[in-house]
Write a structure and sequence with these properties.
- The protein is of the alpha+beta class.
- The protein contains 10 helices and 8 strands.
- It has an 8-stranded mixed sheet with strand order 2-3-4-5-1-6-8-7, with helices on both faces.
- Helix 5 packs across helix 7 (284-297).
């Protein structure tokens, strides 16, 4: 019996949101990557950027993986499927030669997976770091997601058993399948597998696949990888959005808060767009498998929660914009008030200066029949009195402006 495990692991490799594998920019990214060898593979290198949406319909026609690293191990193979979304799916294939026992297989799979990831992840991390250094910075999204609890918070382990069709009639296999699928969304799939009604059951963490044809098994494995990566990334973005919204309540730097919320919102929106495009390239069979997995996982609820977080982020961004506009308006009012006060003071001083010059030089009013009473009054006042009067006039104007603005 073969055992497959699928584990999402965060990585630092993240391209700009919305960078499509068919775009010319993505080809520039691919040209910067190292050459293929026995362990490293760039799946999109030969695909090209001119693929028609309806030219091919299989799991490889729109491959969003940036690179694949595979290594043969003692009793199987470990493969790192590195997606440019800050997430890698570690797929491990193990040979299990003992009698099928659900508890033993689960323990064996989890322990082996954790040990293999721990031993191979440092090598893959170096490869990813080298790839990041090769890619032009214009195509990289260097704003990394913050860990909410730890770097391992996304590392759930999903386990699938590959069953030969000729073993389904064995009562021991029937009992194993009942135990293996008892806690999944459809435990009755055990009987349906034995009866030949279905050839796979992939609902929640424990999966079973009848390994009848290699091509179909590869398709089911690809569907599981895609389900894992989109669910894991959406889950991470939801948690990051919650963290950003929580921080937004206390962060005083509005520009910084807006930048973080906008970035997370953009990532979530582009992820859903890419997921929709990915599904449009699938054939009907694979799309049905993917939709069934996502439905069993309640992915629509995760997306709906993400949509609510997007709305909350947008509302918070609008609130920050409104606060900034209000502050700008307030600052403008203060500046205009200061200018008005200075203008009134200058007018008062200019009036005093002219009045006293007019009174002291009668020739300036030689055409008037008598001396101006207004200028004589102003000229006889002390400057402090006039400045105080100007200040009172300014206060009166501010009060009138405030009342008019409040009514609006």
């Amino acid at each position: 019996m073969q055992i497959l495990t699928f584990t999402p692991v965060r990585t630092s490799l993240r391209l700009k949101p919305g960078l499509d594998p068919r775009s010319l920019e993505f080809q520039h990214v691919l040209s910067a990557l190292p050459q293929d060898n026995g362990q490293l593979c760039i799946p999109n290198r030969t695909l090209g950027s001119n693929l028609s949406d309806f030219e091919r319909k299989d799991e490889q026609s729109y491959d969003t993986r940036l690179l694949i690293y595979r290594q043969t191990i003692e009793n199987g193979e470990i493969v790192f499927h590195v997606f440019p979304l800050g997430m890698t799916i570690v797929e491990i294939c193990l040979e299990y030669r003992e009698s099928p026992d659900a508890a033993q297989i689960d323990k064996f799979a989890r322990q082996s997976t954790q040990e293999l990831i721990a031993s191979h992840l440092p090598v893959v991390s170096k490869i990813v770091a080298d790839v990041v250094s090769r890619i032009p910075s214009a195509y990289l999204d260097r704003e990394r997601l913050e860990a909410v609890n730890s770097s391992d918070d996304e590392r759930w382990i999903a386990c699938a058993v590959l069953i030969s069709s000729d073993t389904l009639c064995d009562p021991a296999m029937h009992k194993f399948l009942e135990q293996w699928l008892c806690d999944t969304a459809r435990p009755d799939d055990a009987q349906r597998l034995v009866d030949g009604e279905i050839d796979y059951s992939m609902t929640w963490l424990n999966y079973a696949i009848v390994d009848s044809t290699p091509r179909r098994t590869l398709m089911l494995r690809a569907a599981m990888r895609l389900s894992q990566v989109y669910y894991a990334v959406q889950h991470s973005l939801n948690r990051q959005a919650q963290l950003d919204l929580s921080r937004a309540q206390f962060e005083k730097n509005a520009r910084k808060v807006k930048s973080a919320l906008t970035l997370t919102r953009t990532r979530m929106q582009m992820l859903q767009i890419q997921f929709g495009v990915q599904k449009s390239f699938m054939n009907r069979t694979m799309r049905s498998v993917l939709d069934g997995i996502m439905q069993a996982w309640g992915f629509d609820d995760v997306v709906a929660n993400g949509a609510r977080l997007i709305e909350a982020s947008s509302a918070r961004i609008n609130e920050l914009d409104r606060s900034r506009r209000e502050f700008s308006t307030y600052l403008t009012d203060v500046i205009l008030a200061a200018i008005a006060l200075i203008a009134i003071m200058e007018l008062s001083l200019a009036l005093v200066q002219y009045s006293r010059e007019f009174v002291s030089r009668p020739v300036l009013g030689y055409t008037d029949s008598s001396v101006s009473q207004v200028l004589s009054f102003v000229a006889s006042r002390e400057i402090d009195v006039l400045l105080s009067g100007s200040a009172l006039l300014f206060v009166f104007l501010v009060i009138v402006y405030g009342l008019l603005k409040r009514d609006k």
